[in-house]
Design a protein that fits this description.
Blueprint lengths: L10 H7 L3 H12 L14 E3 L5 E3 L5 E2 L14 H13 L6 H8 L4 H14 L11 E9 L15 E10 L3 E10 L4 H11 L5 E4 L4 H5 L4 E4 L6 H4 L1 H18 L2 E3 H15 L7 H12 L7 H5 L5 E3 L5
Parallel strand pairs: 4-7, 7-8
Antiparallel strand pairs: 1-2, 2-3, 4-5, 5-6, 9-10
Amino acid sequence: MTVEPEFPHSLIEFEEQFATEEQCRDHLYRMRFPDGFRCPKCSETGFWWTARQLLHCKGCGHQASLRAGTIMEQSKKPLRLWYRAFFLVAFQKQGISAKNLQAQLGFGSYQTAWTWLHKIRRAMRRPHRKGLAEVVEVDEALYGGVAPEAPGRTPGAKQLVAVGAEVVGLRGIGRIRMEPIPDASSESLQQFISANVKPGAAIWTDGWKPYKGAAKNYLHVPVTGALTSAKVLPRVHLIVSHCWRWLLGTHQGRVSRRHLQWYLDEFVFRFNRRTSRSRGKVFYRLLQQAISHQATTYSELVGKSSKSVPVPALT
């Protein structure tokens, strides 16, 4: 059974549909159990709601949580706050900073807002997403700008990021992918390409020699000549420019290396849905992915401390 998407098209509709905890609970129930509840222990379909909003199985007495197995697992905050967070993230095209989310939701702690946003970013990356297809531009960019002590493709104190973009028509861009890589070696580039580009696709790169080995299982087209890399591969360079400006504008330009991948995933999620006619549908897709993504604890999010890498100055 397929459930028709239920999503608001405006702030007013959102406030009408998800004003109470019961409305959010019932909506989440329909998303998680489109064919009706079935106990994970005994397969019984009958249940009742407990005072703690758990589904109590009539057959074996097992109590199931709507939040189990989602990014909201173990959270004690009301569902309506989580729904509002999803709404704010999805409806603002440029995203929202942790400081802004803290103010919007009335959190006393910046850490709570920061943690929620990082949990939501984890859900923005689908585990089995389809690879880029047909014709794909691939290049790298240095996050943090060119370092005098590490010229060219040498990261030095900066972070190298691999970028892939589908070529559509003469100037169009399809879906994109962005991932930090340790270096510009053939092995690192091959891992990025094999993980993000569909086998059989044609790959356009510049004349960097390691691409020859990295793209050996693809139709590799090195575009060389007197043109600059930006003119040879205009799509990836445009994407990098937009991404760096987004990091500067929304997140004030300081993102740690440890968390860079998740910020890139957010940018990719937004970019790949840029043509969606309804921000409400983006909200629905984000919620779909959030309820099928295992929770990440704060300790797992933080891990070991990492220095922030400044975004390059843009000219």
